[in-house]
Amino acid sequence: MQTLTVTGMTCGGCAKSVEKAVTKAAPDASPSVDLASATLTFADTADRKTVIQAVEKAGFGVAAA
Question: In angstroms, how far is the first alpha carbon of the chain from the final one?
Fold first, then answer.
C-alpha cells in the first residue's frame, strides 16, 4: 500500500470527496482515508501521479506521508 498526507480535509465529507475522486481517476486504487491522521492509503498497483492529481483536482493538498 502507498500512503500520502492530504491537507485541507476538515470533515467526513472531505474524506469521502477524496475517496470518490481517487476511485474515479484510478478505479484499481481502493483508496482509504483516515481523517484523524489526514492520510490517504491506496493500492500499490495504482499510479501515484494519477492519485495525486485526483486529490488536487478535488481541492485538497498532498504531501508524502
Answer: 12
